[in-house]
## 1
Amino acid sequence: MSAAAAAATGDRRKTLEAMRDKLAQDFDAAPPAVVAQIAGRLSAILAEIEALPVERKSTIDELASRRTDRIAAAKAEQPARKPTRQRRTGSD
């Protein structure tokens, strides 16, 4: 997403993340004379992103995530079972 498109959404986090991505691209291609300026601005934007509150998941997403984790943990705890053969009873 471009910085302009992100800014148009009004979402501060998305806008800062788009700016971060653009500055990171520019940093790699920048002439040595402006690398320090870009690095300073990139550092400031990273600090702003880190200071933003963490996005919360919806209750449904949170419960689904917990359920998936529980199922994965339960599968990891179960020892592998050997397949058992059915015994013949002799009364066919």
## 2
Amino acid sequence: MVEEFWALLHKFNIESGVELVWAAVGMGGQALFFGRFFVQWIASERKKRSVVPLAFWYFSMGGGSVLLVYAIYKQDIVFILGQGGGLAIYARNLWLIYAHRARTAAAGGSPEETSE
């Protein structure tokens, strides 16, 4: 049974325990990325319109960060550039959300009304 397990992993270029751990890290990042779509879908279903909740951006940052670390380990320049660029966009969106909330609160509005 153990031999079959390692034979299966070998087909995915996982040749050691270290590689197995890194594959798990990569899958964890992918799970976070899936989570962002899941929370966006649930929020949209609840509102009966398309919305992007704050949690979407946090899942994006978490998934992008973990996947960037994995890409660096794998030394994959395409993956590194893609995740690095995405992280800049996710961080900028969070910055814009919190800046808007601060302006709204300073103007006497409710910060909760500024995002989903």
## 3
Amino acid sequence: MPKAAESTDALEPIAECGCGAHDGEGRKALGVDPEAKMRNLHRLRRIEGQVRGLQKMIEEDRYCIDVLTQLRAVRAALSRVETEMLKAHLGHCIEAAIVGGDQAEQRQKASELIELLDRAAR
């Protein structure tokens, strides 16, 4: 169970980092917004259906442009999930590290984000 940390202003208390740095059992998301989680799961299920549809299109020798159009749709949908996850990480995990003042944790979060963006740029 995540511990609540008081914020420095009059806002509600914030939970510790949601990426699992404090759970003692490895890296597990702790402070996940249930609504965001459901939105992402819904998107991923829809993407799963789109991928199955793509498999069927290829099995049926569908026109290349139709398959490519669906591939682009899947890629765009995955990008939306990625964007949502990145926003959540920035708005919760990284913000908690900044507000918490722990410089080692701040460096770790910044390093993780830079490494992620570097891998995406390749």
## 4
Amino acid sequence: MRLTKDEARILGEAMDEYKYKLVASNGSYKELGLFNKLHDLQHKLEIFGDDKRRYGRTSQDDLHDLFVRFAKQNKL
């Protein structure tokens, strides 16, 4: 399975929210060091999702534009 840059950014944003809830809900995850591993995964997704073609543009690079672009590309 391959991820696009937009999909990687969306997953990175979701990971940012979810990692805190997951580790707080279960103490055994904290012992495994899951938070640090999820943080590393989030960092990899953010690095991969960085689209250098969008540098210098003032639009089409925020999260709202990302969701709009993703929804248009994945219509059924």
